Structure prediction request, 146 residues.
Amino acid sequence: MKSARLKWIIILSLIGVAISLYALFHNAGFASGKFCSLNSTFDCDIVNKGPYSQIVGIPVSLIGVIGYVFLAIGAFISLRNPTDRSMAKFVLLASIGGLLFSFYLTGIEFAVLRVWCLICVSSQIIILLIFGLSIWNYRSTAPLVK
Prediction:
């Protein structure tokens, strides 16, 4: 059962990498965002190419790629050594960081831009699912007994 949770974290992380890479290519102008620029409420161009699409010159989508890669690697290592509570803790903490970053970005979409990006919302759902799975995974990992 635990291995199934970790496999789902890996799968969701890889989907997150793919979504974030697409957003990165869109931000850089290598991919079109036409399919998710539907109207004035849902417009990926405004979100992904606007002033909040970078932090200190680093594209937010690149931060997403890196975060999802770390989550996938952590879950893979945890899958190889399921009794390692420290790796389960790493995956949990990384997912908390990703979720908090996602909340920050969602707040910008909601309160500042007043526009939603379907790519971003997909990533937000994925990190929320990973967070839930990582809590479940951490809680099922037995604490070290001395």
